Amino acid sequence: MRVGLHLSEYPSGKAHGGMATYVYTLANAFAECGQEVHLVQKIGLQEDRLDKRISIYRIAPQPLTPWVSRFSRLLDKPEIRHQRTFSKAALNVFNAVSEKQPLDIVQLPEYNGEAIEFRKTPYPVVIRFHTPTFLLDRLNGITPDSRRRAWYRFEYRAIRRADALISSSEGLKKEVCSFYDIPLKKVRVIRNPVKIVKSAPLSVINKEGQGLTVLYAGRLEKRKGIETLIHALPMLLQDNPDARFVIAGQDATDGERYQKTLQALSVSHPNRIVLTGGLSRTALQEWYAMADVVLVPSLFDNSPNVLFEAMAAGIACAASDTGGIDEMVTSGENGLLFPPGDSKSLHQSVTELIRDSALRQRLGQAAATRIRRDHAPEAIAREMLSFYGTL
Q1: Nearest-CA neighbor of 367 among 336, 346, 321, 323?
Q2: Which residues touch 248 (CB under 8 Å, ≥6 apart)?
Q3: CA distance linking residue 80 with residue 158, whole number of Å
Q4: SS (H, E, C) 308-343
Q5: Worst-scoring range by mean pLDDT, 19-33, 67-81, 184-198?
Q6: If we measure between CA atoms, which residue out of 317, 292, 297 comes closest to residue 367?
Q7: Pairwise pLDDT comparison (301 vs 199), residue with the higher score
Q8: How far apart are CA 222 and CA 320, in angstroms?
Q9: Per-residue pLDDT reduced to its tens digit, 155-168
């Protein structure tokens, strides 16, 4: 099968996001299954190492057709017109590829309206829900003004270009369908592929003798639950004197404010709080190897890659009972869940894991089994290809 993939975020070698990781893993899995993959990304991005069989195209903005341009100038905000020029560029690339030999499918995200120019294409268009802007704004406490509401409508217009819709979780599917009044039956849930990375040997992990390590890896923004973690940290530090807490993430909209708070805590607790900033894929894997507990306190998260990667590595996880997380974690069986935004419950769950090594081992082993069973990249790629074949 000849597959086209496009995602403007993909993939940023440092501080990459969940969408980038998803496309990176899926593209490689398709190639390993013998599929022909054509990947479009914005010019200036540097991808992580990809399978050599994947064709990569880098795009710059391209002018809209005269009548579309006039229409857009009358009705669209400047940021929407700008985004349409990138969508036009991606469309031109995929059409040119398909003219030489027809593409069987092109998949794009709903985020940023990437599919807005994809009308009457010679190939089916699949749009995958990652996390649309309306939901990001809601979780980050942003009150939408007229420009933001226009952007929500723009993303929905792009969604309507799809021949098929997919989501990585039931939770995200319900949120998007409710907001945009899309029938639930029109959206297929296909889980994220998760690459299994071998952990470092135990002797390597513990060689520094620094006690237990609790890792948070994610953007410093409200929706990721960083406020909940900050509220819980003083008590966690007090009640777990042998543990250190590693915060690995780049600044987001409010990141500077959170960074200052964390730096102040770090000064008052030297060597107990480690702030790494944004990390490359390789550097993050090294922290997974040293982590005893991984914390995912998101207010909502459809399919957080850090949770998948930690579970795959056999690390005990404490996570919010929300979004697609509770579809992956059964509390007490392969992780611990706590109510989103509840710092006391977060403290209780993390402390329980810190103090009970047998529990950590049992949950970590069960988590790794779940990921290997349900999220192997080759299996997800085959499920995706089977779905494509129905269109």
Answers
A1: 336
A2: 215, 216, 217, 218, 276, 277, 278, 279, 284, 287
A3: 11
A4: HHHHHCCCEEEEECCCCHHHCCCECCCEEEECCCCH
A5: 67-81
A6: 317
A7: 301
A8: 13
A9: 999 999 999 999 99
Strand order across the beta sheet in which 164-167 lies: 55-59, 36-42, 2-6, 105-109, 125-129, 164-167, 187-189
* CA-based nearest residue to 26, from 45, 13, 42, 10: 10
Residue carrying the six token digits 């520094």: 208
**Which tokens is 281 given?**
């894929």
Least confident of 72-76, 147-151, 218-222: 72-76
What distance in Å separates the CA atoms of residue 313 and residue 206, rounded to the nearest whole number?
16
Distance CA(313)–CA(315), nearest Å, equals: 6
Average pLDDT over residues 300-310: 90
Domains and CATH numbers, the chain: 2-193+376-388 (3.40.50.2000), 202-374 (3.40.50.2000)
Give the residue from 126, 57, 118 showing the smallest Cα distance to 91: 118
**3-class SS of residue 300:** coil
Query: How many whole angstroms separate alpha carbon 291 and alpha carbon 315?
Result: 7
pLDDT at res. 209: 46
Q: DSSP string spanning 22-79?
A: HHHHHHHHHHHTT-EEEEEEETT--PPP--TT-EEEEE---PPPHHHHHHHHHHS-HH
User: pLDDT by residue (tens digit) across 191-246?
Assistant: 999 987 655 544 344 444 468 999 999 888 899 999 999 999 999 999 999 999 99
- Other beta carbons within 10 angstroms of residue 81's beta carbon come to 16
